[in-house]
Amino acid sequence: MESVFFWVFATVAVAASLLVIGQRNPMHSVMLLIVSFCALSGLYVLLEAPFIAVIQIIIYAGAIMVLFLFVVMLLNVPTEEAPTGYHARLLGGAGPRRFGAVLSVVLVLELAWALSTMRGTPLPGDAVAPTVREIGIRLFREHGFAFEATSVLILVAMVGAIILARREK
Amino acid sequence: MTVSPTLIAHLGLILVVFVALQISAAVLVYMERKVAALIQQRYGPYLVGPRGLLQPLADIIKLIFKEELRPRSADTLLFYAAPVLAATAAFAAFAVVPFGAETTLFGLLDEPIALAVADVNVGLLVIFAITSMGVYGIVLAGWASNSKYSLLGGLRSSAQMISYELSYGLSFAAVIMMAGSLSLREIVDGQEGYWFGVIPRWYLFLQPVGFLVYLIAGVAETNRAPFDFPEAEQELVAGYHTEYSSMSFALFFLAEYINMVTVSAVAVDLFLGGWHGPFPLPAGFEWIWFLAKVFVLLFFYIWMRWTLPRYRYDQLMAFGWKVLLPVAVLNLLVTAYLVLLGGW
C-alpha cells in the first residue's frame, strides 16, 4: 500500500518538475511547480513527518508560489517566444550550449555520486519523526544563531525591496 | 484487508461529512436569503415548496441546465481547473475538523472512533495549509478568464487573503500555546469542564482578543461582506467569477459556503469548546452542541453581511496590516508571557 503511494507521489513529483521547464506559458509552469510541491509533501507524509509535509505546503505551495503567481499576473508575462536575433545568439549559440551540456553532465555525476554514497547507509535505528516541540527546541537552542541570521537576511531583503520600489517617486 | 465494522464506520463518516457539507451549503443559501429578507423587511423566497424551503433545490436545477460559457480568449485548462480547485480545497479543509466526542455509535462498534474524517496530530496546520491552497482557485479563475474584471477580482482576493492569513495564523498560535497541542481534538479536550461549576472552560474567555481577530480574519479569508472585495458588484461586476456560468459558477458558490462552514467549525473547536456545552448532553449526542454553535456563528456571518456596508479597499489593507496584525502579535506576546509565567 505504502509503496503504491510512494510511486504515485514520486512519479507525479518528477513528471511535474520536468513539465515546469517545458512550458511556454509561465502561469502553467507555476501551477505545475505547485503540483510538484504537493507531491513532495505527500512523500513527507509517507516518511511519517506530517509536520514537515504541512510546512512544505504552507510555505512553498502556499506562500511562495502565491507571490510567484502574483508577479506573473501583475507583469502579465506573455507566452514565451522562441528567441530570435541577438538573444538567440546569446543563449542558443554553440558556446552556451556546450557550456550547458558540461554543466548538466557535472550535475548528473554529482547526483550519481551522492546517491552511491547514500546507498547501503541504514536509517538510524529507531528513527522516530521529531515532534513539533522537539523541532522547535532544536531550532531555537542548537541552531539559534543560524535562525536569527536567516531572519536578519530576510529583513534586509525586505527593506531592500521596499527601497527599490520607492525609488520611482 | 479485512473489512471491520470500524472501517465501514470510517467510510460512512466520510460519506456523511461529504453529503452534510453539500446540504449545509444549500441550507446556507436558503438561510442567507431568508435572513436578508428579514433584515430588509420582505418575505424572501416563499413560492417553491412550503415557506420556500425548496428554493435551493430549484436553484441547483436551474444552474445544472444553464449553458456552460467560456470566453474565447480564456485559458481552457486553467479556466476549468479553477472552480474544481476551489471546491476541492473547501471540502478537503473540513476533513481534519473533529465535530464530536469519541463514540461507539451506541455500542455498534467494539472500540470508539473519533468523529472526524481524519484525526491528524497537526490538524490545525493542515487547515491552514489547505486554506492557503484555496487562494489558487480564485486567482486562477481571475487570470484564466482573460477579462479585466476577473483579473482585478483575482488580484484583490489574493492580496486580501495573504494579508489576513497572517492575523488568522497568529490567532491560532495563541490558542496552540495555551493548549500545548496542534491537534484540534486535544484543543477541544482542553476545554472540558467548568469554572466555579458554571462557566464552561472555553478558550473564548481566556482569549477574547484572539477570538475577535480570528472572526475578523475569517470573514476576510472567506471573502464575505464587509470584506467581499473580490466580487464587489458595484466595481467589478462579479469579480473573479464574472465569466463563469452554470456548474462552474455553482462550484465557486459551493466553495464559498463550505469555507464559511469550515471557518465557523474551526472557531467552535478553537474558542467555543467544540462539543462541550454549557451543560452536558447524553453520550453519543455531544455533536449537537457543535452543530448548534456552528449554526450560531453562521447566522452571525449572514447577519453581518446584510448589516455592514463594504469597506473601501485601502481601508481593508490599512486595517489588516496596521490594526489587526499588531493586535494579533500583541495578543500572542501577552499569551506567551502568561503561559511561561503561570504554566496555565
Question: Can you walk me through this structure?
Answer:
The complex is a heterodimer of chains A (169) and B (344). With 169 residues, chain A is an all-alpha fold. Chain A is 79% helix and 0% strand. Chain A is built from seven helices and no strands. In chain A, helix 1 (2-22) packs antiparallel against helix 2 and helix 2 packs antiparallel against helix 3 (50-75). Chain B is globular and about 60 Å long. In chain B, 44% of the residues are buried. Helices cover 65% and strands 3% of the residues of chain B. By secondary structure, chain B is mostly helical. Chain A binds chain B through residues 25, 27-28, 31, 34, 50-51, 54-55, 57-58, 61-63, 66, 69-70, 73-74, 132, and chain B through 75, 77-78, 81, 120-122, 125-126, 128-130, 132-133, 135-136, 139-140, 142-144, 151, 154-155, 158-159, 162, 182.
Summarize the topology:
The complex is a heterodimer of chains A (169) and B (344).
Chain A: H1 2-22, H2 26-46, H3 50-75, H4 85-92, H5 94-118, H6 132-141, H7 144-166
Helix pairs in contact in A: 1-2, 2-3, 4-5
Chain B: H1 5-39, H2 55-65, H3 76-94, E1 100-103, E2 113-115, H4 123-144, H5 148-179, H6 184-189, E3 194-195, E4 199-200, H7 203-206, H8 208-221, H9 233-236, H10 246-271, H11 287-307, H12 313-342
Antiparallel strand pairs in B: 1-2, 3-4
